UniProtKB/TrEMBL annotation:
Stored NCBIfam families: PPOX_FMN_DR2398 (TIGR04025)
Organism: Kumtagia ephedrae
Pfam families linked to this entry: PNPOx_N
InterPro entries for this protein: Pyridox_Oxase_FMN-dep, Pyridox_Oxase_N, Split_barrel_FMN-bd
Name the record gives this protein: Pyridoxamine 5'-phosphate oxidase
Length: 204
């Protein structure tokens, strides 16, 4: 198998990017971007430690959970999780991040590329609190490139079409997966019950 190793060889294989696809890139969060973020309950954060180790982390919460602080600045609350801190440690090593905002049922997405930092600022954390519970930290992103992404990936995948979804029963539960992968002494049912309790008690 041969691999492409130069930018020139890659570009030679593809048609040139269309003029509108290049012009659509913004440097600020305009009204449409702000409206999209205000309605989005889900964002994917791509990061890297700068040594070739990459990570994509999902963040989900009530619509509008990501705050727009000004024309180029976003604040993403970090709620309780598994404390691996993959994204946060990557940001400390390499601030470059890519964000992908989704709205359920909408085939277009919003992309934001920029630089991130982590803050424990108490006022900001309290502003982003849910049910009186402040996030453990906040990822503050300075946008460098902002643009809407077309619908082709979602149309090809039928992501929002329930009739195309595989039956959930065809997939094992997380408890079953973890029992096999980690050789857990507990039964899959016990692990699933533990996960259900953890979800109920530590969402925020």
């Amino acid at each position: 198998m041969d691999f492409i190793s130069t930018r020139e060889a890659l570009r030679a294989h593809y048609k040139p990017a269309s003029e509108p696809s290049l012009r659509k890139e913004l440097r600020v969060l305009d009204g449409h971007c702000r409206n999209f973020i205000a309605k989005s309950p889900f964002v994917l954060i791509g990061s890297s430690d700068g040594n070739g180790n990459a990570d994509v982390t999902p963040k989900g919460d009530r619509p509008g959970f990501v705050a727009v602080l000004d024309d180029i600045t976003l604040a993403i609350p970090d709620r309780p999780g598994n404390n691996r801190l993959d994204t946060l440690e990557n940001i400390i090593a390499n601030p470059a991040v890519g964000l992908l905002f989704l709205i359920p049922g909408m085939n277009e997405t919003l992309r934001v590329n920029g630089e991130a930092r982590i803050t424990l600022d108490q006022d900001l954390r309290e502003t982003l609190a849910v049910d009186g519970k402040a996030p453990q930290s906040v990822i503050v992103v300075k946008a460098r490139a902002v643009y809407m992404h077309c619908a082709k990936a979602f149309l090809r995948s039928d992501l929002w079409a329930p009739e195309k979804w595989p039956p959930r029963a065809e997939m094992p539960t997380l408890g079953e997966i973890l029992k096999d992968q980690l050789a857990l002494a507990e039964s899959a049912e016990q692990t699933d019950r533990w996960l259900d309790n953890a979800y109920r008690e530590s969402m925020w």
